[in-house]
């Protein structure tokens, strides 16, 4: 299970002995999801691309709430002007107090009132700004997440979800990408506000001493570059340490997941997992520490230089005032301007750096939403008619990636309409892979699969899947009600309780579900109990493994009137009696439906119309049960081994 997968509150079931499909390297998607990497391990991205990204982020933030964004801009501009206004009002007030001849700008009381109003605005505006910014951040985050998960749902195949580079991207996009447009906007507005303040105060300083104004401005340049370099390093660090972050979450999840709990306790894995988690955390922490250290080394001396500049300016101002060259008001405006310029420049510089970093991080979100489809889609899809003749596989070769071994090697197979075709073979023979190709989770590396002669790549993938029902070996257990767990099989009938119950009945689970504390409305989970009494059994129940498997079967059986029914180990967790009963019901249900049945229990498939034996990716035997027994090959041997096991037990 992916620790940060899209399934919150649901997990796939993995039966014992099933291939865990670790996906060391997934089929190569059409374009690489790993970005071009610079010497620092971070993403290499040109200035123009960065500006485009920033503009996209800003446009997105603006689109999320145009009115709020406009209000935010107005507050920002006002806040940017306030320090200059306050500095000038202070100067005029002091001069008016000290020298009545200078009262042409207003009476001291009027100036004091204006200064007080400026003070009130200075106190209130940051609060308003924070509120508006948070509003905007929430709106933009909702929009971004909606688009991101829309994009994730748009990947029709499984390759992307098994591509480690893409999963890293997705994690970063989830973690930071969603807030990046809001942060870009906030940082850009911080730059706007800082620039207005700097322009006003530098203008003021310039009137007093042009040399000092130039020096204060110049002192900010190295700081700007240092901050930008720091942002780049931080974004590179985020990318470099994303795999470690994902592994850390994986170990954390294992220690807290209720399904992992029994193995973790029995095998005493707690300390081992905690150690591994700490190792990964250490990798992340070391990377962060290095970035912080570099920031300290570069920013520390710059801050000291800025303070020295202020001290020198103050000495000059006091000296000039003592000599009568400037007024007391000038000294006060000078002190306010130097301090104000330095803090506004600092805010502007760090705003630029934040905008830069947000644009870099926003790249992960863009990579997710702009990733091309993982399966080529036909431009003019053929409309799929109900199956009338057969599904055929012609010389189908498949491997999960160019680095992986071939899983299927030239499979030829006809699945006639209405027939039940059983697929058998040892673990890893390629049975589930064959089924996944039929569902078009991947395309064959070579060869083709045709539906009544139409290549399934020429059909819209949703159209194809709408004609199928399936129980997968690693079916899902959703933390939802019993009814929902079944109805998810056919969302068009989500509220059709009769259909849900009929499906449960066919999967031999109706009696159990009907007897639950709230019947079909009982939550099949003890994970969510917000607002309910956690000790009340009606809050949720836990099913056994076999009961879950029947629920998964019922989910598949919700999909009536489908052309192809895929059953990949549908009864592996059932007791012998239940298995027989389920297969009996399934035989009735399958009648007239084309079906593919995978099972290691050969007794369950002996009545299939056609049995094929897969070995090392090839069909090595095919025929009915009787024909294969008569041929005395692999199937006969496997069947005899299983039968002998039962006979021995009875002897
Ligand atoms: N997503 C994947 N990425 C890479 N390799 C995979 C993936 N899924 C399966 N494989 C590999 O493909 C091979 C065939 O696996 P598959 O699941 O099709 O076998 P199977 O016949 O269904 O086995 P079982 O009887 O154990 O269920 C195995 O070697 C497996 O490791």
Task: Describe the fold and architecture.
The protein is α/β, with parallel strands linked by helices and 651 residues long. It folds into three domains: 45-369, ABC transporter transmembrane region fold, CATH 1.20.1560.10; 389-467 and 564-651, P-loop containing nucleotide triphosphate hydrolases (Rossmann fold, 3-Layer(aba) Sandwich), CATH 3.40.50; 477-561, P-loop containing nucleotide triphosphate hydrolases (Rossmann fold). The chain is built from 19 helices and twelve strands. It has helices at 47-64, 66-98, 108-154, 164-177, 180-208, 210-240, 242-256, 261-266, 270-322, 328-369, 431-438, 461-465, 482-487, 497-506, 510-514, 545-557, 576-590, 625-631, 634-650, and strands at 10-12, 390-398, 408-416, 420-424, 446-451, 454-455, 468-471, 476-478, 564-568, 594-598, 610-615, 618-623. The strands form three sheets. It has a six-stranded mixed sheet with strand order 7-9-10-4-11-12, sandwiched between helices. Strands 3-2-5-6 form a four-stranded antiparallel sheet, covered by helices on one side. Helix 5 (180-208) runs antiparallel to helix 10 (328-369). The protein starts with 9 loop residues before the first strand and ends with a helix. Residues 1-10, 14-35 and 37-41 have low confidence and may be disordered. The site of adenosine-5'-triphosphate has 18 residues, from helix 11. The site of adenosine-5'-triphosphate (ATP) has 18 residues, from helix 11.
